[in-house]
Each structure stands twice: as C-alpha cells, then as structure tokens.
Amino acid sequence: MLKSVVIIFATATLSCASLACYGDSYASLQLGFHDYEETVSGTSPMLFDSSLTSLYGRLGKQYNENFSAEVRLGVGLGDDVYEQDGLDTGLKLSLRDIYGVYLRGGMQVTEKLYPYVIFGYTQATLELGDDSFDFHEDFGGVSYGVGVDLELKPELYTSIEYIHYFDTVGTELSAFSVGLTKSF
C-alpha cells in the first residue's frame, strides 16, 4: 500500500509541474468517506454494505469561469467490516485504488463561494477477504455529484463534495469528501 501511495503522489507531482506551464490549473488532496452497497437478487434479496476511506489527488484545468476538466487517482486507507443485512460476515472489504476523469460545471456565487456539479467516469478495484483468502474485482461506471469550493485565501480553497461514483450490476459506491485545493 505504501508503494501505491508513493507512486500516486509522484505521478501527481509530475503532472502538477506539467500543468503549471499552462495556467488556470489546480491540484487537490482529498479525503473520501465512501459508502459501499451491494444487492444480491433472489427470493429474499440480500444487502451487503461497508464504509471505506480513501486518499486521492485531483489534477484539473479551468478552461473558463464555469467549466473545468480533471483526473483523479487515489488509494483506499484500511478496510472495514463487510456486513450482510447489518450482520458481520467475518470478511473485510477494502478499496485498493480508484481513478477517473471528470467534467465540472460551476458558477462563482460570491467572491469566496464556487458551487459546482460534476460528471464523469470512475474505475475502482475492491478487495474482499479474510486471513485465509482474498478476492478483488474491478468496477466502474458513470459518476455524478455536487460540490463547493470555499476560498480560504487567494489560490487556496477547501473542497467539499458528494459524488455517486457508480452503480454497476447491483454494486454502488458513493462518497462524501473534503480536501484542500491549490490553483496555479
């Protein structure tokens, strides 16, 4: 896991350096609090759920006052109990990695407040297991959400966001996140 974090931050640093040449760019470090739900159909549908945490970087380019595009790359932090209908299954679920591309549309409401909507595509790898085995699978899909950037001082913002990452074959992932964003 440490190796993944180092690779992500090295990539983010190099990408930031290349984006800085073009102006109107931004980089962010976010902490995400994810809700995972999986519904298994049958005569009596079963609901599996878990709460996961991630750390990810965002790199973006502001094309005009109302439109930007960005990429995100992150890793999960730890694992959580995998529950079936509220009961512990004895298994642990973790978010190995998450990445995607997004378009943001927003409007400067006040000098310090920039609400936005976001739309894009996300891919994530989830791992399920216990001490004797583990199984991982990739999921992905259309993502959408809302957020707000609040200016702390010129070119430094705090970001608050809710995003529904995907709903694929009965598997849903959504998250509330907070972070710091630096524009350059």
UniProtKB/TrEMBL annotation:
UniProt keyword annotation of Signal present: yes
Q: Does the keyword Metal-binding apply?
A: no
Annotated ranges, domain Outer membrane protein beta-barrel: 13-182
| Endpoints of the signal sequence | 1-20
Keywords in UniProt for this one? Answer: Signal
UniProt xrefs under SUPFAM superfamilies: OMPA-like
Superkingdom, according to UniProt? Bacteria
Which InterPro entries does the entry link to? Beta-barrel_OMP (IPR027385), OMP/PagP_B-barrel (IPR011250)
Q: What is this protein called?
A: Porin family protein
